[in-house]
Amino acid sequence: MEKEYKNASLRSIAQKAGITTETIYGYYPDKAALFGALVSEPANYLREWYLLVQREFDAFPAEYKEKQMHGYTNNALEEFTNYVYLHFYAFKLMVCHSAGTEYEHYIDSLLEIEIEHTRRFIDAMRNLGHDIPLIDDDMSHILSGDFHYGIFETMAHDMTRKMGLDTISGLK
To answer: Has this prediction a pTM greater than 0.85?
Structure first.
């Protein structure tokens, strides 16, 4: 957390942990593998869970989506946020200090899921007769990005889970 991924060395990590660099190498072949060990499980779980939630909602009839969208997304958002805060340091490390790793664009991977399913939701609402303006992928990325980055900004600023949920509730 102190030096970010690019500036941290296995030597300095070992020294801070009170172990030898060789001990780290006994478990991880390099710094990237160590970083992955710290963040991969929660990152992969959240991405897969988020995709599942989006696919589940996508499978509902359009009329159900129209009536339940806010309740469904509010529940999913709370579950999402609770999971992120349950793994606070892994996500903070990933979203704040991962430049140079495969996790550098993690939030963008969530946005890709969001954009695809937002497009499907808009199509479903149009099929019900709602006059919804066309939103291109760039604008959808901007709007969704503001929201998703906002969620993780609560962690970047070391907000408690309650403060984070209160802040996120204000973003909806």
So the answer is: yes
